[in-house]
Amino acid sequence: MRVLVKLSGEALSGEGKKGFDPEKISYLTSEIKKVVEKGYRIGIVVGAGNLFRGSELKDLSKERADQIGLLGTVMNAVYLKDCFEKEGLKTKIFSQIVNLPDVESINYDSIESAIKNNFVLIFAGGTSNPFFTTDTAAVLRAREMKAQIIVKATKVDGIYDKDPKKFPDARKIEHLTLSEAMKMGIEVMDAEAFALCRKLGIIVKVINFFEPNSLLKVLRGENIGSTVLPD
Fold first, then answer.
1. Which domains occur in the chain, in start order?
2. What are the DSSP calls for 196-212, one per residue?
3. Structure pTM?
4. Would you say residue 134 has pLDDT above 80?
5. Dihedrals phi, psi of 206, to nearest 5 degrees
């Protein structure tokens, strides 16, 4: 099975923190290694919230702030590649926005070859354009690596009808369609990403990545998290 895992920058730093937390990186690496060792083919798109958030760069135009964020995802990708390889995970980074020794341009033949040779793929630089989120980039890259599903790795164990941190009576929704998610204004992914998933027929699984073994469990088909299905 081919899977695209969408990670937030907080997976590298810890919630509300900046930079790189060795404990968080070690946990992330171990969770990815478990699924690779079971034969799953993994692609990763990671955000840059641990380094930059466009909303924090209030004095810059939106397009410039977004470009800085795109570069932040490249920094995270290079950092992860080093951490993964130290644990024996063969890793390749693909991006269209930089020319660095560790980064390859996006090429479908190269992506396919890397997958067949059991490399972990890290896609950096978003969609290569400002104004698009890393959620939308995750859907695009999932299609390019021919992934069957996207796993949205969050800090909540699925989708709820309202914020479970604020409302004790929040109800978990285990299954819904992409159209229903868009109509309800579910914010686990942005509307553009959901719309592209619907167009391309890609399934989205939402899990609490910070619960040990959750990624492996969802790929095995265990009933955890929430599933957003094409219409």
1. 2-229 (3.40.1160.10)
2. HHHHHT-EEEEEETTST
3. 0.95
4. yes
5. -110, 120
